[in-house]
Predict the structure.
Amino acid sequence: MIDQHGGPFGVGERVLLLDQKRRRYLVELTDGGEFHSHAGFVPHRDIVGQAEGSVVSSTKGAEYTVLRPTLEDFVLEMPRGAQVIYPKDLAPICILADIAPGVRVLESGVGSGALSMTMLRYGADIVGYELREDFANRAVANVRSFLGPAALDRYRVKIGDSYEGIDPTDGPFDRVVLDLPEPWRVVPHAETALRPGGILVAYTPSITQAAQTREALKGRWTDTRTIEVLHRGWHIDGQAVRPDHRMVAHTGFLSVGRFLGQGRSRREPAAAASPAAEREDQGSM
Ligand SMILES: C[S@@+](CC[C@H](N)C(=O)[O-])C[C@H]1O[C@@H](n2cnc3c(N)ncnc32)[C@H](O)[C@@H]1O
């Protein structure tokens, strides 16, 4: 578990080493361990007992600043099974799904656990459905490593196929959050697992997946939207102030809808008459 209060580094914790070119290395400190790079090595004992922000030198003179990883650092550097959702989309998903302490979430697929640990950080109580046992184990290990064993009380991962259904004894849920190839196949099951007013969010890399998901969200759903989050860094150095030459131009689309409840269906709004339709026109979150 990451110490959020800045005590000295101890054996068993993960630290982030930043080199002079701002390359980042996630390292687990062990008794007698060494961090090796092209520039020699740093014995872990040189880091243990130091405060955050300390600078350590390798045997060939390279300098590394040592910090505790943030959730963003951890998600980008942690061991992966499946491809993770990137930080630029993780926080918007939590806002769109309105994740808060005690909110009951059905998540599928769980993959490497990046989205799980973000929602757990926001206080969610998660049941995860994941097809692959090795990925499920990786996700649980990542959650334990970053958030500590207590977070596992709010995180139960089942090996299962969410296209086949959601076990009624796992629910009811306040949210269904999906990152798998065919989220529209989970929508009918979400309609039995979600409470009225519940929210479904689906992350999809392609717009055709988003469109198919939106098609499934017709009927018993309202306030349906699809957005894409663009993130552009800026180079700021004295008078040299300009957008970065490179950006991550695309990751995925976020589609969201609110469940009306069994037996209810949306009355189609007159064009741009409802706040949801207006928001959709304006493209807001
Ligand atoms: C892209 S990964 C999810 C990554 C995860 N959101 C993260 O941030 O680490 C997609 C996952 O969905 C799982 N999956 C695919 N189809 C599934 C299904 N029908 N039921 C459950 N899991 C499924 C895959 O095994 C894979 O682990």
Remarks:
- The domain at 73-282 is CATH 3.40.50.150 (Rossmann fold).
